[in-house]
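Open question from group meeting: does this chain pack into something compact, or does most of it stay loose? Before anyone orders reagents, we agreed to write out a predicted structure and look at it together. Recording both the input and the output here so the notebook holds the full record.
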Amino acid sequence: MKSAPHISAGVMKFFIAYCRRRVRRDFHALRILKSGLPACDRDRPLVVYFNHASWWDPLVCLLLARDFFPGRSAFGPIDSAMLERYGIFKRLGFFGVDPSLPGTRTFLRITHDLLANPRNSVWLSPQGRFADVRERPLRLQDGLGALAVREPDAAFVPLAIEYPFWTEPRPEILVSFGEPIVPGRERIRTVEEWTGVFTGALETTQTKLAASSCRRDPAEWQTANRGKSGVNGIYDAWRWLRARLRGEKFDPEHPTAATR
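Structure tokens returned:
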């Protein structure tokens, strides 16, 4: 029987710092849609489920959990083989599951134990595979619906993530939370019906995020973590000199379509 996941405060502090450095180095910014900021009861256990767009998803979720859900401990399932390969995740709140029926039972048991504490959160990628953000219809695994039947008092919150390029050489990380769903406040549904409800909520959140991403209006976003701007030293030096000659302040960022 698999044991409950463990979080080492020291290892987590180090890894969060590592995640912030990686985001600053490899991305232009981590932005959250202002109309998609999380809003849920702090005294209720939390399940955040997100589309699985990239290898970066777990790192992004760790930053979001730390910045937007302070005081909550964040946990998440991961493939058992991957957990053995990257042992550090054992000390960051990740727990191993197998892609089989016994693995599903293990996932439900461990998650049930975690959600008994209202200060805990569990973060899930129920697509079970990497998938393009434009893929429709979404196909989520029924483990999420089974969890809703078993945890009626938890708040289930969809999270949309994508990694588009705007006007900088490095991509953006764009995220938006959807409206929380508490199964105990809704009519009784089957596992399959709950999976359908959550699928629709995540699709709606992704569509909203995509529309704002296309507009590229910085006013719609809250910047959670800023990375590098500019293209290269020679080009940016010329832009700096041109700004000085015009008596303007030099800004290494390129204007978006909304600010031109």
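Observations to bring back to the group:
The CA atoms of residues 176 and 209 lie 6 Å apart.
The first strand starts at residue 29 and ends at 33.
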